[in-house]
């Protein structure tokens, strides 16, 4: 699994820390860190919550380009 740099970029563009995003989507900061590192594959429900918190689409953050 690749690093999710798009998630990190979207979060940073809103000046959100990993903890801010974690609080917004009701997970731990470690979970957000693991998703960004590519060590954890979030559930679709968590993906949706993250996208809503960052005001982006699922395609923006999680669609893998070939």
How are the SSEs placed, and which strands pair?
Blueprint: H1 5-13, H2 18-25, H3 29-37, H4 44-54, H5 58-62
Helix pairs in contact: 2-3
Q: What's the CATH architecture name? A: Orthogonal Bundle
What average pLDDT do the residues reach? 93
Helix content bin: 55-70%
Give Rg in angstroms. Answer: 10 Å
Distance between the termini: 13 Å
- Assembly context of the chains: single chain
| CATH level-1 class | Mainly Alpha
> The CATH topology, please?
434 Repressor (Amino-terminal Domain)
Number of strands: 0
Count, helices: 5
Order of helices and strands: HHHHH
Indicate how many domains the architecture comprises: 1
Beta-strand content estimate: under 5%
Largest sheet, in brief, is: none
Q: Uncertain regions: pLDDT < 50 for 5+ in a row?
A: none
Structural class estimated from helices and strands: mainly alpha
CATH superfamily: lambda repressor-like DNA-binding domains
Coarse shape:
globular
Explain this structure to me?
Keywords: DNA-binding. Pfam families: HTH_3 (PF01381). It comes from Alkalibacterium subtropicum. GO terms for molecular function: DNA binding. InterPro entries: Cro/C1-type_HTH, Lambda_DNA-bd_dom_sf. The protein has helices spanning 5-13, 18-25, 29-37, 44-54, 58-62. It has 66 residues and is mainly α. The protein has one domain (5-61): Orthogonal Bundle (434 Repressor (Amino-terminal Domain)). Helix 2 (18-25) crosses helix 3. It is globular, with a radius of gyration of 10 Å. It contains five helices and no strands. The mean pLDDT is 93.
């Amino acid at each position: 699994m690749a690093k999710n740099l798009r998630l990190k970029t979207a979060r940073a563009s809103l000046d959100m820390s990993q903890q801010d995003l974690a609080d917004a989507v009701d997970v731990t900061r470690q979970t957000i860190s693991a998703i960004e590192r590519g060590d954890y594959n979030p559930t679709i429900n968590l993906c949706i919550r993250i996208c809503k918190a960052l005001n982006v689409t699922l395609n923006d953050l999680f669609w893998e380009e070939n």
